[in-house]
Amino acid sequence: MKDFTEGNVSKLILNFSVPLLLGNVFQSLYSIIDSIIVGRYLGTKALAAVGASYPIIFFIIALVIGIGGGGSIVIAQYFGAKQYDKVKQAADTINIFLLAAGLIVAVSGFFLAKPILRLIQLPNELLDDAALFLKIYLGGMVAFFGFNGVISTLRGVGDSKTPLYFLIVSIIANIVLDILFIGVFGWGIAGAAWATLIAQLGAFISAIVYINRTHDVFRFAVKGMTFNREIFRHCIKIGLPSGFQQTFVALGMTALMGIVNTFGTDVIAAYSTASRIDSLAMMPAMSFSVALSTFVGQNVALQNFERIKKGLASTLLMSLVIAVIISLAIILLGKDMMRMFTNNSNVIGIGSEYLTVVSLFYWMFTIMFVVNGLLRGAGATMVPMLTTLVSLWAVRVPAAFLLSKYIGESGIWWSIPIGWVFGMIGAYAYYKTGKWKNKTVFHRSKMSQSEEAMMGEMEV
Fold first, then answer.
1. Digit-coded pLDDT (tens) for 347-402
2. Longest Cα separation, the chain
């Protein structure tokens, strides 16, 4: 567990961000490895079918993951205030919610997979494969959500290294199982989904064993869990706007996928493949954002606003340097990256064009995401939701639709940074108002005498 309320700001954020970044990269490798192995073993149509499924997966889980993220912020704020009994209650509450939600998503996905794919105009030649992949993948959501509940708790108390270890082992298992199920057993596209499901289940079980052996404060045991309605209300208050934000993003991705689908199989394969690389390139900004949220969550409980300001400046500097490096790498090596997935020259050309356009503007995405991370950590999650709603639905989707009519699929690529401009300006403008300082779950000055006494005893 890590206390962010004292010590060197830059060092604390960097040390927390690096394992978090590696963990997010490894988690993203689930979809990337599936796409590489499917593309290499099964061809362009199978690659397009798998790629078309991922926006749907993100859409289905977005709201739940957002609420889970709210739980992590609540845990960080209670931990910063040294209310360890509340940390335990918050961990139990969010785990119960995520496990129940995972079960609902798994059952719903089985019945809704094909209708949703039809809704986004997926070509008939890809429909059956994509639906099969989606049903199996969503069947593993109980393990996926459960694992995210455990790692959200660990990250809320400042531990970003342990989740990384589980993810490394899990991704290695996924690679081995992908090759075994697809290359050896010949299970086709279903093999990729089963490999991911089994790997995620193994990570979840391993995380439970670890947390029960090493953390008495928030042990994971179904029998002893308690659901605290007041804490869940705080999680909803903070997490629901983030969940809606993620849902808007997911719906936007789905809408963009619907536009992409009208251009045929090669463009679908190129877009879904390039977006896998694109999502990996965005991981540093996203990881620094999560680190800053935890940092702010702990410090805002004590109203350390000058320390929070230093945290933002340090995080922006580190993440922007990395963003520039990544942009240069993708501009120079975009085609080589696409060749890892497919030998189809048309797919490679279309995908590399997408990567070049989008990577030029990673610096805007980075500023937007880092500032939003500060706002979420402070509990002001409504603003990121609203700026996302405007930048995505009022700007990006209409721009993609209109530009694609005049300049083809390239118009879809250009709509992405156009949306980031509005999101970046909106987030930074709200930060400058200072209103986020009053959005925390509680203020230390308003604590009861009994709470202050308890904190004093814990500190002793």
1. 999 999 999 999 999 999 999 999 999 988 887 778 887 888 888 888 999 999 99
2. 69
Kindly state the tokens that stand for 121.
């105009």
**Residues 327/329/331/335 CA torsion (nearest 10 deg):** -140
Pseudo-torsion of CA 105, 107, 110, 111, nearest 10°? -100
Which amino acid, one-letter code, is at 95? N
| Cα–chain center distance at 444 | 31
Record the tokens describing residue 356, joined without a space: 């070049």
Contact 6, 295 (CB under 8 A): no
The pLDDT of residue 225: 82
* The two structure tokens encoding residue 136: 């199996």
Record the tokens describing residue 119, joined without a space: 């809704």
In this structure, which amino acid lies at residue 37? I
pLDDT in tens, 309-334: 999 999 999 999 999 999 999 999 99
On average, the pLDDT of the chain sits at 84
